[in-house]
Amino acid sequence: MTRYPRLADLSALVGQTLGTSDWLKVDQPRIDQFAQATGDHQWIHVDPQRAAEGPFGATVAHGFLTLSLVPLLSDQAFAIDDVRMGLNYGLNRVRFPAPLRVNGRIRGVFVLREFEPLADGGAQLVVEATVELEGSTKPVCVAESVTRRYI
Question: What is the pTM of this model?
Answer without folding.
Answer: 0.95
